[in-house]
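Interim report to the steering committee. The following record documents the input for TonB-dependent receptor (691 residues).
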Amino acid sequence: MNKNNYLAAFVLSAACISISFPAIAQSSLNNEDELVLQVTAPRLVRDLYETPAAVSVINAPDIREGQQRLQLDESLNTVPGLFFQNRYNFAQNLRLSTRGFGARAPFGIRGIRIQVDGIPYTLPDGQSQIDAIDLDSAQRIEVIRGPASVQYGNAAGGVIDISTALGDELPEGGRLRLDGGSDDYRKAAIQGNGVDGDTSGIATLSWLTVDGHREQSEAEKALFNARVARDLDSGRRVTATFNALHNPKSEDPGGLTLAQAEEDPGQATALAKRLDSSQTVNQQTMGVRWEDSAVLPGQLTLDTFYTHRDFAQQLPFPGSSRVAYDRHFYGISSEYQQESAVAGLPLVWVTGIDVHHQSDDRRRYSVAIDGDITGQTQAENQSATNVAVFGQGDLAISDALNLSLGVRFDRLRLAIDDDWLQDGEDDSGNRTFREYSGVAGISYKLAPRHQVYATIGTAFESPTFTEFANPSGGGFNPELEPQQALNRELGMRGMLGAGLSYDMALFSIRVEDEILPFNVGDQTFYENAGETRRNGFELGLAWELSYAWRVTSALTLADYELRDFVDEQGNDASGNAIPGLPEQLWVSELEWRGSAGRFAALEWQYVGEFYAENSNQTLVSDYWLVGLRAGDSVRMADQTLNLYAGIRNLLDQEYFSNVRINANANRPVEDRVYFEPGPGRTFYAGLEWVF
């Protein structure tokens, strides 16, 4: 994108006077001076306008209305700073990055903390799986758009905190929803909830099938999510959550070379079809939350959870390419928040302890080119234990000025017990990291509904088990260390009149010992590669033009740069752009809302160009996507029938929905399988019966 277009996008976005924080505009006021919207993701519960951090809030209407509810990007597209890839390959899962964190992930999510109803979906080693998130149950999503290690420790370059509905948060009754669309997309969901005295409950069951827009991309998935809450007495509540995922098939069509993608974007690789590359997952999660404001002067919250995941996958190439594991992940988190005073000044503080443990029994098998399993190549137990203690406090110097301090200590132990000794090597070993994180911030209310803040903080991200592979053979790579980040941020948010909210942030992040991949033959390893510099500007606005019209938009302008880094060919890559990160992102939506539930929304998205590898040899073109959705409601006594439909990629734009960063670095550039083409114009429609 040239400088003139760059400026044009900025001016056009500013002219729209809109950007993401729809939750602000929709929040009610007790009076002109009091904003009731609170945020909980930073763990210290407080009003948004007293929070010295870039935090976005998405509420239920923006999650549900006319959406397929397949992936998080549908709900979070209008949050500035977030970049999504890989929405359509269910075997590789959604990829997400914010401010450069998460960009190195070849699939799935790294470096960003995910949690649902207080239950972590991010493992102690930093990996996250989000295939069990039930968006049909989601009631609220909070996003911290920057490092948050003080709150959550390892791999918290950003935070997505999802809350699903409780039985007493919705009108009693049920919902039945049926969807259909292009590529044989079918989805059914049923939900019921009710209240009986002090007990409330809600349960949601959904089933999805889709053939996909490419060969070898069929997927089937069932989700069940249930919550039961009971008020024991004044100030005490216990809530149990159960979530189950049954994913019998998610096929993987593989990445294509540029020539293959241009010749036939719908094709799968020959090996993916021959080997039937796909994955199977079964997962069950149980969580219990205890909330108590009676036993102590403040508020005590205890969360305990257990997750079991059974996973098997055939990768789209022969060799040691069939993997399986049986995972047990459990732990407990505690938080205690209280209001006190220091030197006569109000102090709100929180302290807590997190103890989480992960245990993976992993196997790997060798597969011939005809798909036959020729032998086992790996059997080991990978275990990770994280123990942490943290504390945060906000000191009110005046009614307008708040000072915030926080500190956290993490002890993270990663260990491998090698049970496969037939190869003559014992790859057992362990690494222990002791990390301190700190943050300091200042928040000033220029007016009751206008805030400016500044913050500086540190964060760390350890290598995952996959990234710890030793290129010299055997055990952990002794040279690999956690990457360390220093985050500086200046932000401003507010409301103008009754209908316009704004949120802007300037950030500058320096990361030392950045973890980046390199190849030895066909195998990928990781190293601490110098440092990176990440500077950017995020702007979010939401404008209620009238009762009927609303426009929202999210603009991100950033510069991501490698420093002191040697690329995969051994060349000095200092000054190159970090691969996989567009430096311009702009998403906007114009929504019309009529009477009796009638609505229509037009969304447009611009993704700037970026590079596919550290050496910056392959430039991935920018693209625009346009989408449209609309719906209506028919009321029948105490029941409602909601009808809706949508078109994605309205202009039938050719683009890549995913780029496999740094793939096949040992091959010539033209033979690297970076590209996964996105679908052309697709349609979906559905109905929802509310009874």
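Residues 64 and 121 are 22 Å apart (CA to CA). The committee is asked to note this result when reviewing the revised timeline.
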